[in-house]
Amino acid sequence: MEKLAKKRGKGILCGTLVGGANSLFGGGGGMIAVPLLVKTGLDEKRAHATAILVILPVSLLSFILYTLRGFYNPQVLIPTAIGVTFGGFLGAKLLGKLPVKAVNLVFAALQAAAGLFLFFG
After folding, report:
1. Which one of 21, 34, 48, 98 is least enclosed by Cβ atoms within 10 Å?
2. Long-range contacts for 2-9 (Cβ within 8 Å, ≥24 apart)?
3. Distance (Å, rounded) from C-alpha 60 to C-alpha 49?
4. pLDDT by residue (tens digit) across 64-87?
5. What span, in angstroms and rounded, lies between the C-alpha atoms of 19 and 29?
6. What share of the chain is helix, strand, coil (3-state, %, to 5)?
């Protein structure tokens, strides 16, 4: 029983960190969620898929709060939503077909590219 409570406590702490990062930065919680989920014992592909599912509610809540405050550009909303939906569909299809090593390499490359963009951009 104590082990389960400790695991749940870690899950709540990790979830709080992921939700905070996702809301504060307008995304990116999955970049934190995946490594944390792997640490809890999930395999890489399940961690990626679970991160997407976990990010959905906080992204919707963030969207509502940002919308109420007027922090979005309606002219790019629809085209971006279409692109993200299409990209998400392709990514989900590829996740099931790519070897774990390839998924890890792509994930690491995207994290590095995002970091470089933020640092130098």
Report:
1. 98
2. 7/40
3. 17
4. 888 899 888 889 888 998 998 999
5. 6
6. 85, 0, 15
